[in-house]
Amino acid sequence: MIKRSLSDICEMVKGHGLHQAYNSSLISGVSIDTRTLSAGNLFIPIMRIDNGHNYVQKAFDKGAAAALWQRDQPNPPKGVPIIFVENTLTALQNLARTYRNQLNSKIIGVTGSNGKTTTKDMIFSIVSTTYKTQKTLGNYNGEYGLPLTLLELEEDTEVAILEMGMSNPGEIKLLSEIARPDIAMITMIGISHISTMGSREAIAKAKLEILTGLNPEGTFIYNGDEPLLNNELTKMKIPESLKIIRFGESADHHYYPVREEQSDEGVHFILNDREKYVIPMLGKHNVFNAIASIAAAKELKISLKNIKSGLQSIVITEMRMQRIKTKLGYTIINDAWNASPVSMKAAIQTMTELTGYKRKIVVLGDMLELGVNEAQYHKEMGQVIQYGLVDYVFTIGTLSEHISNQLYERFPSTHVKHFISSHELAHHIASVIKENDVILFKGSRGMKLEEVVNKLT
Q1: Is it the case that residue 81 has pLDDT exceeding 90?
Q2: Structurally, how many domains does the chain consist of?
Q3: Where would I find the Mur ligase C-terminal domain in this sequence (predicted)?
Q4: What pLDDT score does 193 carry?
């Protein structure tokens, strides 16, 4: 993590007002939350849901080495090391930007409508077989999280994998300019955040902002099956020195699968290099996340042996096709971190292809942030679910009722049910589920389906 003198920090954040008696004092790490602050941290009070300046004294009480203070905020504490800045969020970003420029680490930036967290985890698992590697923890992928991730990097880190998320235009541009990736990647373009972006075309343009800070002699890896990305790239001025790699289904791409097989334990696939790869996680859609990861690994000159072993030992962030075997003998697949029509269809398809289970139960929550056509997207989801391939469907939330309404005529009446309460949903599932069944949970993060999962494990 960052370790600097306060005089250095003052310069890096473009601050002022630090008493010279504190110039040589050292900070170790950065915190924006007193609940997780460690002694020696620099505390940065963020103006977000709450005013972080209200917690500066608490930060010092917990051992903070110094704090920033936004100049327009009244009553700064006295007798402690304070650096004044115009805006604390901008200061955090400036600190991360300058620290990144002082590192020799290779940076891999990953964005996309779906799959970016899983791909980040895959790349980390592969790259850490060869290099000292760090990655974005949890969902620290935005205007606060990415700078904090950068500031957590050890100075001898050789490769860092940074996830980049967005809700609005300009956000990926900011993150890319801070991180200055050497390898940039777009997993795919879906309709997540279409309520704020307006169209898939706008989403594609926003994701391509990752090229803004990309090393002009670096590498850009993207899903070549997406026409919107191909079309937008033809309009952009791309440095001749930039290496571009496409992956996807088409044999016209640099990387594509020639065969895929799924078992209860994971997915096996053969790439166009004729090599066989194994990923110990469910979902054929994850093959493309793995292929993108393989492409990045090869750019870093990682051996084929290490690529394969890294993929096989991957540890996926929770709630991404997470398989949980319960004491009562049934299996839960928790894929409830987020949901879009693309990812929900993929999860349902994965369920239909599983073998070795007595019955298959699907629990679906609302897909949020889908804009004016949100009802139609849910109706279409109901149309793709077939009785026989799935035995029970339970839905929860206002929008997901559109899914269950599509199923009543095609499923036995006791096999489809809509719920408003998560407590009632959990109680009903417990009364239905039996040993050797498998149950999928899929919905947007705001639905908090993990609460139901926790009651069943």
Answers
A1: yes
A2: 3
A3: 319-445
A4: 72
How many Å apart are CA 402 and CA 405, to the nearest integer? Answer: 5
SS3 377: helix
186 three-class SS: strand
CATH number at residue 288: 3.40.1190.10
* pLDDT tens sequence across 391-443: 999 999 999 999 999 999 999 999 999 999 999 999 999 999 999 999 999 99
Q: Which residue has the tokens 């980049």?
A: 164
In terms of Cα–Cα distance, which of 15, 7, 17, 13 is closest to 65? 7
Amino acid at 237: K
Beta bridge partners of 243: 219
Dist CA 377 CA 342 (whole Å): 10
Closest CA to 415 of 442, 390, 381: 390
Supply 323's token pair. Answer: 């398989």
User: Is there a single domain that holds both residue 72 and residue 143?
Assistant: no
pLDDT in tens, 274-328: 999 999 998 889 999 999 999 999 999 999 999 999 999 998 778 888 899 999 9
Annotated binding site: 112-118
User: Who contacts 283 (Cβ-Cβ below 8 Å, separation ≥6)?
Assistant: 262, 267, 321, 346, 347, 350
Q: Hunting for tokens 């492409």 — which residue is that?
A: 295
Give binding residues for ATP as ranges: 112-118
Residues 306 and 342 in one domain: no
Q: Read off the tokens for 329.
A: 């003998």
Shared-domain flag, residues 299 and 167: yes
Residue among 367, 360, 444 at smallest CA distance from 401: 367
**pTM of structure:** 0.88
Q: Taking 90 as the threshold, does the pLDDT of residue 191 lie above it?
A: no
Q: Is there a single domain that holds both residue 365 and residue 223?
A: no
- Residues 151, 244: one domain? yes
For residue 244, give its domain range. 103-312
